[in-house]
């Protein structure tokens, strides 16, 4: 077996081992509402379900927030909410 074939087999084995250990990440972002429109955000930041403006009943988003990671301090340097 020549060196090139051996290197290819070795590289493929390492690549397969490394990719098998990577974590799957699912990033879900809700859009077009105030952060305090979600019950899970209000519970995380204020300890109450409702904000001064009320909230959206979203049991599936609440469940995802309970089981995953929820970021309560997020910023953008260029917010855009519509077509240019």
UniProtKB/TrEMBL annotation:
One Pfam family named in its UniProt record: Sulfatase
Gene3D superfamilies noted in UniProt: Alkaline Phosphatase, subunit A
Gene Ontology molecular function: arylsulfatase activity
**Which residues are in the Sulfatase N-terminal domain?**
24-83
> What keywords is this UniProt entry annotated with?
Hydrolase, Signal
Manganese among the record's keywords? no
Signal peptide region: 1-20
Q: Does the keyword Hydrolase apply?
A: yes
Q: Where are the transmembrane segments?
A: none
Instruction: Report the family membership.
Output: Belongs to the sulfatase family.
Q: What's this protein's name? A: Sulfatase
């Amino acid at each position: 077996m020549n060196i090139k074939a051996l290197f290819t087999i070795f590289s493929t084995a390492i690549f397969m081992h490394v990719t098998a250990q990577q974590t799957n990440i699912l990033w879900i972002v809700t859009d077009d509402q105030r952060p305090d429109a979600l019950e899970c955000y209000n519970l995380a930041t204020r300890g109450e379900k409702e904000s001064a403006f009320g909230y959206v009943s979203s049991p599936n988003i609440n469940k995802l927030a309970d089981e995953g990671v929820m970021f309560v301090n997020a910023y953008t340097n260029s917010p855009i909410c519509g077509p240019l």
